[in-house]
Design goal:
- The protein is α/β, with parallel strands linked by helices and 429 residues long.
- The radius of gyration is 26 Å and the shape is elongated.
- The protein has three domains: 192 residues, GTPase HflX, N-terminal domain (Rossmann fold, 3-Layer(aba) Sandwich), CATH 3.40.50; 170 residues, P-loop containing nucleotide triphosphate hydrolases (Rossmann fold); 56 residues, Alpha-Beta Plaits, CATH 3.30.70.
- Helix 1 packs parallel to helix 4 and helix 5 packs antiparallel against helix 7.
- The relative contact order is 0.08.
- It contains 15 helices and 13 strands.
- The strands form three sheets. Strands 6-7-5-8-9-10 form a six-stranded mixed sheet, with helices on both faces.
Length: 429
């Protein structure tokens, strides 16, 4: 499937199951995505196998005959690693390992491995190890011996220092692993508390968060709006830790714009649970920008996947503007017509076009402006020191110097209105 291979790369075979011929296009797309995941993890994909069967085999996931066939392919093509496009039960992994005699990895394990290699912040590293241990706990008996044979390869796990708990934990039993899970859960709570305390200082700012399917171009849009210079890489999950920047808007007001990890189909539930704190920027957003790769043939399925993850996170009620990115790569005008019909509030852009980014910025600012509140104040001249606070908090649209003080009407963000009310409640007109 690839023309060149580094000598250090592991050779991988991809395996998928299609329950119905009507779903063949969907399965093929999922397999292409699996190939990109494998490439991101550092594996070299030599081939793929798709078996058509109505339901998975309880013992092997694929049929025992297909497992024997895959074993022969592995010998012929010198395959090191067999990656399945769906999650496997511990029993299935054990049986496949014995039958194929190659390392076996499922989609969840592969995604966890990528997250382990991409985690940079303390928060993300804790979350990765926590998710890995929860994933590995039911597979503990065979997985530990598996790691002792092949430490350090794709899918061998890892978060802190090395990929996975590592060789030093090969003999750790379930009780100690559960203890480590509890320890990491407590550590994550402390990190989240620190985040909440840090965020209190910016509570009065309007928060906009980018969400979307992985590789939809969120980081490119983020850089275009903020000039932040964050990593842009044509690989899945290039962004893992949330990045937040202050962006000035009309009237001298600032908003907070955040970029978050991309979503993907079949995202492991325990990974979503562990990464809820990384996605805190989503929870606290006043507005979501759902970035979509408009040039992708599966763009609607990608939007559905993002919607499901947001529902799972419990943030489906936050206002959202669809941003159809990579419009310059769309060749069929009918695609834009369908997008406009289904999402009339959406905006089609190319993140590389400054004029498009200005249109997007104006769209965001228009939404923010509609959400502002008007607050009337009369500040006595003896309390004139508060005038600066008012001017910093919003747009002063009316001012009159009266005998008893300065009468003001100010347009502010809802959060800023609450802050001003608490500070200046005795001055409210």
């Amino acid at each position: 499937m690839h023309d060149t291979q580094s000598k250090t790369q592991e050779r991988a075979l991809l395996v998928g199951v299609c329950p119905d011929t009507d779903l063949s296009d969907e399965v093929e797309e999922s397999m292409r995505e699996l190939a990109r995941l494998a490439d991101t993890a550092g594996a070299y994909v030599v081939d793929q196998v798709i078996q058509y069967r109505h339901s998975p085999n309880p013992a092997y996931y694929i049929g025992s005959g297909k497992a024997a066939e895959i074993a022969e392919i592995c010998k012929e093509q010198e395959v090191d690693l067999v990656i399945f496009d769906n999650d496997l039960s511990p029993a299935q992994v054990k049986n496949l390992d014995r039958s194929i005699e190659r390392r076996i990895l499922d989609r969840s394990g592969l995604i966890l491995d990528i997250f382990a290699s991409r985690a940079r912040s303390k928060q993300a590293r804790i979350q990765v190890e926590l998710a890995q241990l929860k994933y590995m706990l039911p597979r503990l008996t065979r997985q530990w011996s598996h790691l002792s044979r092949q430490a350090g390869g794709v899918g061998s796990g890892g978060a802190i220092g090395v990929r996975g708990p590592g060789e030093t934990q090969l003999e750790v039993d379930r009780r100690l692993v559960r203890g480590r899970i509890e320890q990491l859960s407590r550590a994550l709570e402390h990190v989240e508390e620190a985040y909440q305390n840090q965020r209190k200082g910016r509570i009065d700012k309007f928060c906009v968060t980018l969400v979307g399917y992985t590789n939809a171009g969120k980081s490119t849009v983020f850089n275009a709006l903020t000039q932040a210079g964050t990593l842009i890489e044509d690989r899945l999950f290039a962004t893992l830790d949330a990045t937040t920047r202050i962006v000035p808007v009309s009237g001298g007001q600032d908003i907070l714009l955040s970029d978050t990890v991309g979503f993907i189909r079949k995202l492991p539930h325990h990974l979503v649970a562990s990464f809820k704190s990384t996605l805190m920027e989503v929870f606290h957003a006043d507005l979501l920008l759902h970035v979509v790769d408009a040039s992708h043939p599966q763009w609607e399925a990608h939007m559905e996947t993002v919607g499901r993850v947001l529902d799972e996170l419990g943030v489906h009620d936050i206002p959202m503007i669809p941003v159809f990115n990579k419009r310059d790569a769309v060749e069929d005008f009918a695609v834009f017509q369908r997008m406009q019909r289904l999402y009339p509030d959406g905006v089609a852009v190319s993140a590389l076009d400054p004029a498009d980014m200005e249109r997007l910025r104006n769209k965001v600012f228009e939404y923010i402006d509609r959400s502002r509140l008007e607050l009337g104040l009369v500040i006595p001249y003896t309390e004139a020191r508060y005038l600066a606070t008012v001017y910093e908090s919003g747009d002063v649209i009316f001012r009159a110097d009266e005998p008893n003080g300065v009468r003001l009407v100010v347009r502010v963000m809802p959060a800023a209105a609450g802050k001003l009310n608490r500070l200046l409640d005795r001055f409210v007109a």
